[in-house]
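Two proteins follow. First one:
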Amino acid sequence: MLKIRSSKKFFPLIFSLISIGILALIISGIKKTGYHITYSATASMPRGFYLIIPTKKIARHDIVEFIPPSNVRDLIKEQHWTPDSGLIIKYVFAIPKDHVCIKNQIVWVNGKKVSHVYKSYAKNKPLPQARICNKLKENQYLLLSTKSDRSFDSRYFGVVSLQEILGRAVPIFTYNTN
């Protein structure tokens, strides 16, 4: 009788360990296909969890996760503007063949004013200034935030290539802190 009682006592623990093991195998399998879950903690996008779906087809207004261009990675890390992964989530504002122009500290897409461009993020702390005024080429995208006018995005580092985009970000659970 003593053996039966002690095995029943450990059943929840054994069941939990098996469940965690199965979940770990499933997550590992999903990650190998390029799918993953990420958390966005910055104020420039809705905070929360996103499912990243690998894709080669990006549309205007999609949310995407991408690797920032190499010319701004050091600045991003110094300022802690991204998580440790260094990956960023933003909205797609312009797609190939759209006309994008940054002039007079304004971003224009197809002749429409989209956003303001700031010269610095703090006193004596200049921001890089992207120089764009042409139609986007195939596989080029302009990525911006709609939630924060002070977002660090394509206004400062320029267009992002399809090769730097890891996938579409589908909100799973997001919230606003305002």
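Second one, unrelated to the first:
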Amino acid sequence: MNNRTAAIIPARFGSTRFPGKVLAELCGKPMIQWVYEKAVASIADEVLIATDDQQVVDAVEAFGGKAVMTSPNHPSGTDRICEAAEGLDCDIIINIQGDEPLIPLEVINDLIILMQANPEIEMATVGVPAERDVLVDPNRVKVVVDNFDFALYFSRSLIPFLREGGLDCPALLHWGIYAYRKTALEQFVALPESRLEACEKLEQLRALENGIKIYLMRSSLESIGVDTPEDLKAAELKLIEMQTKENNARQIKL
């Protein structure tokens, strides 16, 4: 086990809800560039973008990034990163979604450190506390964990259900960033679609149904996943706010 880490960003051009979103302009850059720059700033040994479209390759190369072309027939981003990882000299693969331009650098680094320090963990992801009224949206995936912080279940429904008179249990919002041992990733993509996966349309359920344990790393930080043009506007406002704070902090130091 060499603990070398590759951060791979799947970037499918033909998103169903927001076609071409990975190249949508966000504060003067294509969205995928924001994600790539976060990954490059991390402690990962190698960073690349895995795509199915020459437009994405051209855009990535234009800003100095590294992209690889993968099959257009992959059913998921996980299958895409597995193809991109073939031949890479690494033990740990970090899957950073191409629609997470605000993913905190600390989350990427903490996930890498977690995998390096715990060789028994095959697969890991991230969850953040969230209020129940925020999590009603089925596009926001929820997760519940056991006493050892391994995932019990992921769902688009609000879990755990709070029955009248019941004791509330904090809800966790799932972030779509994953870490895999390379061997676990290869095992995962070789498995057929599972029953729960086909029902909820959440591929991580395939792992749980087949006995692959997923460790959930908790975070108190925040991000904005971009699924719609409205999300893109929210991400732009957040980036402008962050840049204003950074500029003000620099001026104070001067």
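SUMMARY FIELD: Helices lie at 31-41, 54-62, 77-85, 105-117, 182-190, 195-200, 204-209, 229-253. The chain has a mean pLDDT of 92.
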